[in-house]
Amino acid sequence: MIPQPLAQSLEVFRIGDPKGRFPIWDAIGSTVFPGRWNSGSSPVIYAAQSYSLAMLEKLAHLNGILPDGQHYVRAILPAKLSILTVTPALVPGWDSDPPVAARRLGDRFVAEGLSAVLRVPSFVARIEWNFVINPRHPDFGMITTFMPEPVWWDERLFARI
Fold first, then answer.
1. Is the pTM of this model over 0.85?
2. Which residue among 29, 77, 134, 140 is least enclosed by CB atoms within 10 Å?
């Protein structure tokens, strides 16, 4: 895989609780609760290509429980920032459970440090993209983040008891 510079800046989104145990724009949570593309030894920040995909990803991890205090953070990946893109064909079994192949690739991405960002397919919305961001990469500081804003959840998205 060869990193490619972004042709133009790209907006990404992440949702979390600013008063919660883990800051929204921080990798600590990914070491405690590893994701599809990292093990606990590879701290990363996950973001989505759109606000709605960030909501969908959050819903997939909440098991139908309406979350309190959720906010979103918008971030700008600047033009010329190097990015590696992973397609499903490059990682057979990326969508397996447990995600052994995906985690192996994500851990390699962090360890080798070839780019600050890894673009990966969303498990939830397979034709959309998530971004795995390496906060240890020297180019991480090029990413601009904005103040958290509240997320409004439509209660119809959640189970009624």
1. yes
2. 140
